[in-house]
Amino acid sequence: MKQNLLFKVWLVLIMLTICTALVSNSKRVLLLAIPAILVLSAVKFFLVSNYFMEMKRAHLFWKLSILFYLIVVIGTFLLILK
Length: 82
Prior knowledge:
By secondary structure, this protein is mostly helical.
């Protein structure tokens, strides 16, 4: 059961990577490309940390620190780019 779930998460990560590549090569949505890539990266980071790094079973401190790190990094990038 766990292997099946990890395989599905891996497939979602592959699809998100393909979406990121398509968004980065698109010329129509240039203004929205960077925030879209950052959001897709955040989702991928969340999936990897929860399913492949076993953060789902970690102490609440570590879960919150990962979430805080994600918010700070993405927020900083978005503020710099505006």
